[in-house]
Design a protein that fits this description.
The chain has 305 residues and is α+β, with helices and mostly antiparallel strands. Helix content is 39%, strand content 11%. It is built from 10 helices and 6 strands, in the order αββαβαβαββαααααα. It has a two-stranded antiparallel sheet. A two-stranded parallel ribbon has the order 3-4. A hairpin with a 4-residue loop joins strand 5 and strand 6. Helix 8 packs across helix 9 and helix 9 crosses helix 10. It is elongated. The chain starts with 7 loop residues before the first helix and ends in a 28-residue tail after the last helix.
Length: 305
């Protein structure tokens, strides 16, 4: 560092960044020996012998983060860079992982500007949560952006194979459930349970929403469907046997999907439905719901007319 530039600006920037994230476990200070730094705890004690593996990795990451923004030569030249982050969150706790995710995302955002000397970024990891955080983009709708690719390294007994994906291969189970709803045509054997699981997760997550109040907003056969879909929302209202399903024809599936959409709209959470459906969202006028026969979910041994 001494051969490249003064160490003081790097120390100041790293400490400023740590403070902005509310990280107080340690800070960097200039050493009595010129061109070196020391790591100090909040009480002023030397942290050299007490740093955890995660904290050591974090300091290394922070130094690298500022190094790629600085000069690599004593002449001050700034060449183009390809930056590789190889599993940088090993042994890190949740707070540090959150900071690292945000810093890597800032590097990627900088790369996308014409003024940046960073021309390409590779992020490699075994950590699914880290991957999910780094790749999260509020502007992403479906698939991948034109300047990004997703790969999975699959190891066999003799070699490793790179498999390319047209979209982010790592998704939460909740997102996968919505993918089933968006599927054209939807599965007539699983769609009912998929919708029930979504409603259970979402309404329990937000809380304070009474299923019985929503059910009362429906009438006739729609009310029966609504009751069936919401039967999982209350604790203790379902058992393993409730995973059973009955096959519906296309018309019945369509009606279930329409009532499923109305449940979100009637509970004033239509915005979430539109967000999760994305480009597949279609407004459904209530008076256009077809009159079709509805079969309820029944446990084994029951008979249905």
């Amino acid at each position: 560092e001494r051969k490249i530039t003064s160490i003081k600006p790097t120390i100041d920037e790293i400490n400023k960044l740590l403070k902005s994230f509310g990280f107080t476990n340690f800070r960097l200070v200039e050493s009595s020996a010129s061109g070196f730094y020391e790591v100090k705890r909040p009480n002023g004690s030397d942290a050299k012998r007490t740093l955890s593996e995660g904290e050591k990795s974090f300091i290394t990451f922070l130094y690298f983060y500022y190094l790629i923004r600085g000069s690599f030569s004593s002449s001050g030249g700034m060449g183009d860079k390809v930056v590789v982050f190889d599993d940088p969150v090993s042994s890190m706790d949740a707070d540090i992982l959150f900071i690292v995710c945000n810093l890597i995302k800032s590097v990627i955002a900088e790369m996308r500007t014409d003024a940046s000397t960073i021309k390409q970024v590779f992020v490699l990891t075994h950590n699914i949560y880290f991957h999910k955080e780094v790749t999260f983009d509020t502007c992403r709708r479906t698939g991948k952006k034109k300047d990004e690719t997703f790969w999975v390294v699959r190891k066999t007994s003799r070699r490793s194979e790179l498999v390319s994906f047209g979209e982010n291969p790592i998704k939460s189970s909740y997102e996968l459930l919505w993918k089933e709803v968006r599927q054209k045509p939807p599965s007539d054997t699983t769609i009912q349970n998929v919708m029930r699981r979504i409603l259970e997760h979402y309404f329990k997550f937000y809380g304070g929403i009474a299923p019985e109040d929503i059910i009362e907003k429906f009438e006739g056969k729609d009310k029966m469907i609504c009751n069936t879909l919401l039967s999982w929302v209350n604790d203790g209202s379902h058992f393993a046997i409730d995973d059973l399903h009955m096959t519906c024809d296309a018309g019945q599936v369509d009606r279930y999907l329409k009532v499923f959409q109305r449940i979100f709209e009637e509970s004033e959470h239509g915005g979430h439905f539109r967000m999760m459906m994305g480009d597949d969202y279609v407004a459904q006028p209530v008076d256009e719901i077809p009159e079709t026969y509805v079969a309820s979910t029944l446990p084994t041994g029951s008979e249905t007319a």
